[in-house]
Amino acid sequence: MAATTMLWRLDVAKGREAEFEALVSGLVRDVAANEPGQLFEYRKTRGERPQYILFLSFFDEEAFARYSSAPYHTGVSPAIMACLDGAPQGEPLDVF
To answer: At 23, is the secondary structure helix, strand, or coil?
Structure first.
């Protein structure tokens, strides 16, 4: 099966950066604990108004589906989405 790999760009509402970073830091820890070997990393651009980048790569669609429906993900996602200023912009990537 093919890997599921995505790049997401997220704009966080002004003043909610610390809350967002705390929430996604917990999610990153949960993914590492529950989905060993999968890539799931957040970064932010430099500058006055940073944009957050999520890179994720799961071994296959089954692993991605398991993550997507996991309580640690579904429980925190609404709070993460509430921190955003607009919809996340994502694009699938191909592994080569």
So the answer is: helix
Report the predicted TM-score, pTM, of the whole model to 2 decimal places: 0.90
DSSP secondary-structure letter at 94? Answer: -
Q: How far apart are CA 55 and CA 88, in angstroms?
A: 13
Asked whether the beta carbons of 10 and 52 are under 8 A apart, the reply is: yes
pLDDT tens readout for residues 7-17: 999 999 999 99
What is the rounded distance in angstroms from the CA atom of residue 5 to the CA atom of residue 56? 6
φ, ψ of residue 45 to 5 degrees: the values are -75, 160
What letters, b where the CB count within 10 A reaches 16 and e where it falls short, cover 20-44?
A: beebbeebeebbeeebeebebebee
